[in-house]
Design brief:
Structural class: mainly alpha
Largest sheet: none
Order of helices and strands: HHHH
Shape: globular
Number of domains: 1
Number of helices: 4
Oligomer: single chain
Length: 107
C-alpha cells in the first residue's frame, strides 16, 4: 500500500513537463526493493507458490503504474498545498516502511 502514494507523488512530479528527482527515485527504490524481498521470503515460507508471488508483484506494479498515471493526469492544476501534502504523505510512507520493515530486519 505504500507504493500508491509514492507513485502518485512521481506522477505529480511530472506535471507541467517536470522531471522526477533522482532522490525520489532512489528513495522509492531503496525502500521498496528490500521490503519486497523480505515480504516475498516470508510469504514463500508460509507456503505461497512462486506463481502466486509473481502474480502479487505484477498486481503491485500495475496498481503503481495506474497511481502514477492518476497523479499525472488528474492532479494537474491542483493547489500547491495539496501537491505538497501528497508528497509529504509519500515521504512518510517511505519512513514508515524503513521503521517497520527494514530496521528490524537489519537488527
Amino acid at each position: 500500500m505504500d507504493s500508491i502514494p509514492e507513485s502518485v507523488a512521481i506522477g505529480v512530479s511530472l506535471i507541467g513537463g517536470g522531471t522526477v528527482g533522482l532522490v525520489m527515485v532512489a528513495a522509492v527504490f531503496l525502500s521498496n526493493m528490500p521490503e519486497s524481498l523480505s515480504a516475498a521470503a516470508g510469504m514463500k515460507k508460509a507456503g505461497r507458490s512462486t506463481a502466486n508471488l509473481l502474480g502479487l508483484w505484477r498486481a503491485v506494479v500495475a496498481i503503481s503504474a495506474v497511481s502514477t498515471l492518476f497523479g499525472h493526469l488528474f492532479l494537474a492544476g491542483t493547489p500547491e498545498y495539496l501537491i505538497t501534502s501528497i508528497q509529504s504523505f509519500a515521504a512518510g510512507a517511505i519512513l514508515t516502511v524503513l521503521a517497520s520493515t527494514m530496521i528490524p530486519e537489519a537488527y
